[in-house]
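seq as requested:
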Amino acid sequence: MGKLKRLMSLPPARRRRVAGAWVLLVKVRLGLWVLPFSRVTHRLEVWAARRIAAREVADPHELAWAVRAASRGVPGGGHCLTQALAARALLRRHGYEARLHIGVSREGVLGFAAHAWVELDGEVLIGDADLDRYQVLESPRRADAE
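struct tokens:
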């Protein structure tokens, strides 16, 4: 089944959630291409600070699913950093205090690998891929200011 058919087969609320995640992923991806990282995270923080109405709050697993599903339709949207930044902003906009983590490893093809993931209450929602091999860098101040 094609991507569009799969999207159209979803219930309307899930379709809207995936579409919204897709738009956010596109903005994050474009931002990472043309802006400094600190500027992208600041803009996401400003957007996330505008909390949505309580009646629209969604389950955090549903929000993470929407980001993963939408990322398949975004050029470069499958990158862990793009997904993690978008998911964290979306979760925070819905009132969840999700944390962004960026880790590095000396392993990999070039002797160096990096990975980004998002946790909520100790559970990895985005980017759960062999995390033990990464040394976590300190979270960016602006992105994780409580």
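The chain has one domain: 3-144.
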